[in-house]
Design a protein that fits this description.
Length: about 300
């Protein structure tokens, strides 16, 4: 079996918060997370607001400096890297932000917003910049004649395509997509989801797809991790998570979604069990078979 593209081991990110007095509380936003992502894989990360999903994604890319643990990219631990070494690695590891309205500089035309990082990393020159930017825009479903327009001239769905194009222009092997469709109209979401699927297949790009929308994750991702209070409580294939969920919290998340499948309706009633579990101590992930990991007590 080939080595994973991204290997996260016991990653933590703790924030110190000053209380009313001089004492400090510690927020364990990410608390001992381990996972692997293969080349070209679409890996889903699910959890409710405040579960630590975004902090985990940003910590993997060192947008937040982790408190401890390791992140290996192509076998190399990137956490000890110096700024210059990390800058050289940035094109291979990209981030797509949730809000396309704030992710783009309103003063830059589209050709500058996408072309400038390409030139910085040696992927384009002044002579071929427009041609290359037009090509990457077209691969993301936009006409190449929009180069000289500004972000405010586009709809939300078009802006998100531009944000995705900016990330893909650097030819990354790995992309963290943080709730990339949550700010869009439902009618546009399906188009962007299909775009991610196409990019993953055509370019063999690996994605960590962060979302609270279980339906989108089930449709798009081949493996899924469920996150709660900074920890992974269940992880497995799409079929294991959605057809055979074992953790009470996973069941509660799925029970909150209207599902016509009678096999899934049998899980109703897990809500109290999930609340009882949440009040207990964190449990370690255990493999219950075929790579299906569950945080069991005891």
């Amino acid at each position: 079996m080939s080595a994973p593209l991204v290997e996260v081991t016991d990653l933590t990110k703790h924030f110190s918060v000053r209380g009313a007095g001089r004492t400090r509380d510690v927020v364990r936003a990410v608390d001992g997370v381990s996972l692997t992502i293969a080349e070209g894989e679409m890996f889903g990360l699910v959890g409710e607001s405040g579960s630590g999903k975004t902090t985990l994604g940003q910590s993997i890319l060192r947008m937040h400096e982790p408190s401890s643990g390791s992140v290996r990219f192509r076998g190399r631990d990137i956490l000890p890297l110096r700024r210059r070494e990390m800058t050289a690695l940035r094109p291979a590891m990209q981030y797509v932000f949730q809000d396309p309205f704030s992710a783009l500089n309103p003063r830059l035309t589209i050709v500058d917003a996408i072309g400038e990082p390409m030139r910085t990393h040696g992927l384009a020159t002044r002579d071929d910049e427009r041609t290359k930017v037009a090509a990457v825009l077209e691969s993301c479903g936009l006409d190449g004649d929009v180069l000289d327009r500004f972000p405010h001239e586009f709809s939300g769905g078009q802006r998100q395509r531009i944000v995705i194009a900016r990330a893909m222009a650097l030819e990354p092997a790995f992309v963290v997509a943080d709730e990339p469709v949550s700010a869009l109209d439902v009618s546009i979401q399906a188009q962007i989801i299909n775009l991610f699927s196409d990019l993953s297949e055509q370019r063999s790009t690996a994605f960590l797809f962060i979302s609270h929308d279980l339906g989108i994750v089930e449709h798009l991702c081949t493996r899924v991790a469920i996150m709660y209070r900074g920890r992974i409580v269940e992880q497995g294939t799409r079929e294991q998570i959605f057809d055979r969920p074992l953790h009470p919290y996973t069941r509660e998340l799925l029970d909150a979604v209207p599902v016509p499948d009678p096999r899934r309706r049998e899980r109703r009633g897990a809500r109290q069990q999930a609340r009882d579990w949440a009040n207990g101590e964190p449990a370690e992930l255990r493999d219950v078979g075929d790579g299906h990991l569950v945080a069991w007590e005891g």
